Amino acid sequence: MKHFKKVYFLLLITISITTNASVWKNLNQWDNSFELKYQNWVKTNWNVDIFTNIKSTYYSLPTDCADAGYTMRAIFSFENNLPFAINNRYSKINSGPSILSNKMTKWDKKLKRLFSKENVKNEKQHWKTLTNSQKKAWLFIKYIGEMTSTWTVPNDTIPSNLGPTGVTPGKIILLRRKHVYTVKNIDQYGNIEKLSSDLPREVRRLDISKEFQISPIKEFESGLLMFRYPKELTKKSWKIKRANTTQYKLYKSISSKYSDIKKAKHKIKAELEKKIKLGSKLNIGIAITIESEEEMLKRKYSFVCDYAKRRIKAVNKAIDYRNKINGRCFTKEEYDTYSTPSRDTHLYDYLSEFTNRVTENDYLDVDSQFKNFKDQEFVKFLSAIFIENPDQSVINGSYYQSCKVSYDKNDSSKNYFLYDLPELVFGDFFSSDPNLDLKYRWGEVESDDESDLVSTCPTY
Questions:
Q1: Distance from C-alpha of 428 to C-alpha of 430, rounded to nearest angstrom
Q2: Where would you tag: which of 106, 206, 276, 366 has the fewest CB atoms within 10 A of its CB?
């Protein structure tokens, strides 16, 4: 009988330990060695389909832009038994812990929770393939996404140094607390390959881009950042030895030369990009070789086209949601999720940078440096960008056709091409208001035909 009680008691202890275990064990600690492993892991494993590939352990995890950064760090921490911890912004509201970490013990109970009825069959099959530890990590990472936003990022990160040891895979880029990019890799020209998610929070393939985005306008709002170690979470950033504010000093030294920073933002960005890539008195450059004018213009062309096409999905989601709620006005929270002011502002900026670069040079001048471009089809395309009725050979060319923005899924004849965008974007024809119809969102109507444009719904 005593033996039975002893076995029963040990069994109870075992069950208790199992059902109250942390999400994963901390068998290792963050140091320079694991930071290097983290960089290599991001280059190799942090891919655009990590949440949409059914073979991925993290298949069907929903994200928005901030979630992607936190998730990247959390996944590597889980796979390498490293501590993961962030500040809990809701601790005072819900009387919860001040720190959210993998030491939390609430996840075993959630393992019994079935996926909702809306989940498709293959998601249920995917769930069955995961081990209990993977399920716990999956649920924990999903929870972290629900508890974070672009506003929590400054509390969980510190500014990174610049140069080859600072601009590395695994860092994140924060833009005015409005958007987050994750750094995947840096090419030989110093272009930063970034992956990002977006609103609304959902399961999605990550976007990829190489356009320069570091904009360290103000500390705690923007810049190149790295995650704090758990022991650093409660410290002021200036007391953390790893924190480096060089990027903000560099931005200040450049912007101080201009009386109107807003008007000069493109010049400031171009100079900042050059100094981060090639180096300055404050930092060592990250570029191994200099990008040619042709390569740079092709990169900018590709990015502008891709960014315009991404707007299609964003606007369509708002239209679909508006239909779902039977056309009622968007609430403030819904408006913030489905409106596109930041996206439209960025499209304006990216298009400005590209068109300014094109128009400040004469691509038809045979004596110009562009006669040495290897791809003369691209030169011909550039020379016709702002011509209302380009030559048919240009229209049939690959550069013209690959930048077709087919924005109406119900009418394949409604397309914009690159030469359409400057007038539409710079003329403020596009609308970011999710309460409006597709024709207004995409500027189909002329400015003098907008008598019915005014919505009775509030804007925020």
A1: 5
A2: 366
Q: How far apart are CA 294 and CA 296, in angstroms?
A: 5
- Of 141, 140, 99, 105, the C-alpha closest to 233 is 99
pLDDT of residue 4: 37
Residue whose token pair is 């180096």: 279
Q: Name the token pair of 333.
A: 């929270």
**What pLDDT is attached to residue 10?**
34
Contacts of residue 423, defined as CB under 8 A and 6 or more positions apart, other chains included, come to 429
Q: pTM to 2 decimals? A: 0.86
**Strand residue runs (E) in 206-273:** 207-209, 223-227
Please say if the pLDDT value at position 113 is more than 70.
no
Question: pLDDT-based confidence at 6, cuts 50/70/90?
Answer: very low
**Which ranges constitute the DSSP H helices of 325-460?**
332-338, 341-359, 376-383, 392-395, 398-402, 421-426, 438-441
How far is 52 from 73, CA to CA, in rounded Å? 18
End-to-end Cα spacing for the chain = 71
Task: Say which residues have a Cβ less than 8 Å from residue 392's Cβ, sequence separation at least 6.
Answer: none
Round to whole Å and give the CA distance between 407 and 416: 8
- As a whole number, mean pLDDT of residues 333-357 equals 90
Q: 132-146 and 65-79 are packed helices; what angle lies between their axes, rounded to 10 degrees?
A: 150
Task: State how far the Cα of 55 lies from the Cα of 47, in Å rounded to an integer.
Answer: 13
According to DSSP, the residues that pair with 194 across neighbouring strands are 183, 209
Task: Report the interhelical angle of 376-383 vs 293-324 (nearest 10°).
Answer: 60
Q: Round the average pLDDT of the chain to a whole number and report it.
A: 86
Q: What are phi and psi of 148, to 5 degrees?
A: -125, 165
Rounded to the nearest 10 degrees, the angle between the axes of helix 65-79 and helix 32-45 is 120
Among 149, 151, 172, 142, smallest CA distance to 160 is for 172
